[in-house]
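Table 4 source record.
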Amino acid sequence: MPGHAWRYAIYDLLTRRQLIEHMPFEIESFTTMLGEAGTLQATLPLGDPAIRARKPRELLLTRRTNLIIFRDEVPVWDGVIWHRRPRREGSKSSATFQASEIRSVLERRLFRPLLGYGSAKTLSYTQADMFTVFRDLLADAQNFTYLDLRPGDLGIEADASQMSGVLIDRRDAGSELGAFHGYTFTTYGQLLRDLVEGDPGMEWRIHTWIDEGRALRRRVLLGSPQLGGDPNASPLPTYEYPGQIYSYEWPDDGEQSANYVAALGEGEGDNLRWAESSLDDELLAGYPLLETVTSHKSDSSLVILQGRAAADLAAVSGDRTVPSLDIVGYPQINPGAYIRVRIADENWFPGSSAVPFEAVVRVVGLRIQPGGRERTSLIIEEPRSPA
């Protein structure tokens, strides 16, 4: 079976103009993630005259050079070179480059006044859709003009018609400062993270493609509370061991588990309002008592605190299971997707040769080994429904 064609193209970050079709890097692996910037490390053997002829010192510039990885002419990774390190040891000469996905640039952009000292900048929202606020911040991060140049423009587009259905306020009310103020000098990356981590929360990633005119395009994909597929969809992509899965780990971590929670509310000392919840079935089954405490200082209602205690107990009870799955090839899935895993391994799952152990898990990242022997490590969230 013929292999897949990989190439490592070099673009200028701001103009999105291709500078060279392929730079023959040696790349052991790269990651693409949901919720953070994926990374890669690439090496160039500078002893090769053909590589030196491509002028890597002049072409591969930190902060400015955009590296796009193509698989069969489809972009699968899009990032910025942040570090380069040439090295010479005797007759051996090489240069190592480290890059992070495009969203890493937003960690270096500040929400700030644009007209210098004495100027101000504020964005305020009343009952605005959460996605609208997100898109406005993303657009604002890119909308900076300097001497007729646009040095903040990453070319990230957004679908203005997509709504989350979640209305939020970001405005000042009395002494409560809820609007976005330039005097905080907060990074856009942090402001977007604050939206992601709110209630009910959201997720996002950047999709890169080449359009019909051969132009490099980017679009932000949004989801609330999650981005990706439906865990109850049928059929889900299925991976099996033995089969496409060539190695796996299925750990159980009980160190942070608890079967008793005390939820602390308003008050101090003997006037403290609090409620408790315990996992009686586990205690009756012979497990030792493992306790923890949570804080809800704004709550004074015992009914509400009882609900908090029960919810907190559900969050910390049982073992935390975050599997590791290594598969052959390059899966046609994106971070955020749910997959079904089937394992037939009598050494740990007795009877699984007849009835495989099965679980639905969510992929939140991929570590990919490009080239002739494609391999992918799936970075997994906690399983949703072990059989």
